[in-house]
Structure formats: C-alpha cells, structure tokens
Design a protein that fits this description.
The chain is an alpha/beta fold. Helices cover 45% and strands 21% of the residues. The protein has 6 helices and 5 strands, in the order H-E-H-E-H-H-H-E-E-E-H.
Length: 162
C-alpha cells in the first residue's frame, strides 16, 4: 500500500513536470473523495499548476458538474471506462487545465458485484490529444483501495506527461 511519503513524492514529481511544461491539472474524483486534490495541494506552490478538483461522488454530481450524460451512467454504470472518460473530458472542459485525471470505482466494503467487485477502479486522463482510460483491481480494505487509487491516478498523469 502506498505510503503518505510515496503519494507526496508522486505529487511533487507531477507538479515539477507540469510547471516545466506550463501545464495545469484538474481532478475529477468519485471513490477517492478529493484525496488526490488533497495530496496535490499539500505541495507548497501547487496553485501554479493545479486549477481545481471536482468531487462528484453521486451520479447527479457527475452529470451536473462534469456533464456526464445520464445515458452513459444508465448504460454502463458509474464504474466504467465510458464514465471515467466522460469525467476527465468534463473536468477539462469546465476548467482552465491542460491535463485532467478522473477516478471512479468501488472502494468497499459494500457495493461490489460479480462484474465490478470491491477494489475495482476505472481511471481516465484527458488532454488535447484525447482521453485514455484503464482499470485496476486493488486488494485490501476501503483505505487501501482508495490510497492505491490515488497513487495510480498520479502515476498515470506522470506517464501521460511523458
């Protein structure tokens, strides 16, 4: 399970890359509940490269704040590649950022299904080149799943920046 030091290190690296390239980050979080934004804003000076974070825990919030179409939510569910992509696109469109990351998943201990068990999380990253999504299955309790999700989202943003 990633430590606080690991998460901080990822955020520092991401901030340095964004600053060097003149980039700005926006987050769209569901199961992490703002944890990614918290880790990012723990870094002094992050206002130079972090625009805002959307915590869209409910489907209604995803629709209202990120313009996620109701049809996507109905057809695929909140925990899906389609919704992760729409969240990232919506965050990018509703901000002054150049890079968006999104996360939506089942942190547990309840809410899992056979198709989407506890620990199953979708991620999205969007920029001018388009959107990339991927899923991961994390083990552990709610805290472990959320902590691993924060780390993976930041690692994905680092990969996206090259």
């Amino acid at each position: 399970m990633p430590t606080d030091e690991t998460l901080n290190g990822l955020a520092v690296r991401l901030g340095n890359l964004l600053k060097a390239g003149g980039g700005v980050l926006v987050t769209a979080e569901s199961c992490t509940g703002g944890w990614i934004s918290k880790v990012v804003t723990d870094i002094a000076g992050s206002s130079a490269w972090f625009d805002r974070g959307f915590v869209t825990y409910s489907n209604g919030a995803k629709q209202a704040q990120l313009a996620v179409p109701a049809e996507l939510l109905e057809m695929h569910g909140a925990v899906s590649a389609e919704v992760a992509a729409a969240m990232a696109r919506g965050a990018l469109a509703a901000s002054d950022a150049s890079l968006a990351l999104s996360v939506t998943g089942v942190a547990g201990p309840d809410g899992g299904t056979a198709e989407k068990p506890v620990g199953f999380v979708w991620f999205g990253w969007a920029d001018v080149r388009g959107v990339a999504t991927e899923s991961r299955q994390f083990a552990g309790d709610r805290d472990a799943v959320r902590r691993a999700s924060v780390a993976h989202a930041l690692e994905g943003a680092l990969r996206r920046l090259g």
